[in-house]
Amino acid sequence: MYGISKGRPKYEEALYYYEEAHNQSFGAASLRLAIMYEDGLGIVPADKQRIAELYENAGCTGYASACLLLGEMYQAHASVPQDYERAIALYEKAAARKNSEALSNLGMLHYAGIGVPKDYVKAAKLLEEAAAQSHPPSQVSLGAMLHEGIGIFRDYKRAAELFEKAAAVEHPGGQYYLGLMYQRGTWVPQDYRKALELIEKAAAQGLAEAKNYLGLLYEKGELVPQDSNKALEYYEEAAAQGEADAQFNLGVSYMMGKGMSQDYTKAAELFAEAAKQGLATAQFNLGVMYRLGQGVPQDNKKALELFEEAAAQGVAIAQFNVGMMYMLGEGGPPDDNKAIKLFRKAVFQGEAAAVNALGWMYELGRGVEKDEGKAVSYYKKAANQNCACGILNLAYCLEHGIGIAVDTMRAADLYASIDDATKLEWRQARGLENSTASS
């Protein structure tokens, strides 16, 4: 065969014969030509459009691998216009020929809802087909879905079996997830030594998720001796690979000055990188930095946008912050109705500050009918959750007989339970700076 010999490969001769066969619509030749041009095997690489045309020709003549590769080009915007519809059509064509990689790609697109409606059930079915062909990435993805019960009934036993199969062929994802199961003793016997060994193997193969997790272990001193420097090394490596959680963890280290000099600017940059990937916690932290002007110019409008992104993903503290900004008219015009809706969402998730905020809205009659008794009820709930402002607001109502009978002794006890700095902030928020209240 041309291109393969005991001596030096004869790429030019191979190219000549592949071109001849391609011109006669021989699909295998089109596929080999595309690979030679893409890899630059002893020849000047062709333009990407030519490569795409060769894959297209090979796919049209029935080569599933050509459909797969061309689909990946359209999905990744690799020298052809990004076109998810076209990519999916090509993957489906290859999947119909039982191409495991195409089945896996289709499954992950359905899982993420990219180019198609999000459909976990369909994703699981596609990954099931690919995993049945001993496709390690699909075994890992399906195992993760079985572990969490996403799109398929939760089955720890089967998840462990799939992770073990992938780990047996040194797949880093299989090693990592199997390591987590050994650490937690989920279905498999708890074995910290084995857990660490598997997670370290995955990290050594470059799996960013495993590197980030090792960083967490070293930061907390779990499975390994506590070592802040080692934790930062792993966070930095994973963050450089684009791992959002690692970017967030490294950002927190810079923000708090943990193991390094405090650097708000660097923290904001890392939160921004993770926020671009949709990490809700990073969106929230970056929003806080914009609201306070830490590491970035102070910008309430930008803060509100970021809080809203995190709130849309169900982050309770973000929902509370958006509600507060609507209540105060920060980043946009005041809107008590929106504030109330967001406070209620956060309250549903148990956010104590939002419980207190709802009490405040009822006390003042903002966005709801004024009801001092209901306000006190919310303040009590917030106080029971150890919310300082809830305790102080309850004390104020007890002191002044707002929605509840006067009880100055209980009010004094509640005031005394809160530190002076917090009381000062609370008094300013209530407009009591010059008041003579016993607080």
Task: Present the secondary structure layout.
Layout: H1 11-23, H2 27-39, H3 48-60, H4 64-76, H5 84-95, H6 100-112, H7 120-131, H8 136-148, H9 156-168, H10 172-184, H11 192-204, H12 208-220, H13 228-240, H14 244-256, H15 264-276, H16 280-292, H17 300-312, H18 316-328, H19 336-348, H20 352-364, H21 372-384, H22 388-400, H23 408-416, H24 420-430
Structural key phrases:
about 450 residues, mainly alpha, Serine Threonine Protein Phosphatase 5, Tetratricopeptide repeat, 24 helices, about 70% helix, disordered N terminus
Shape: elongated
List the total number of helices: 24
Give, in order, the helices and strands: HHHHHHHHHHHHHHHHHHHHHHHH
Roughly how much helix do the residues carry, as a percent range? 55-70%
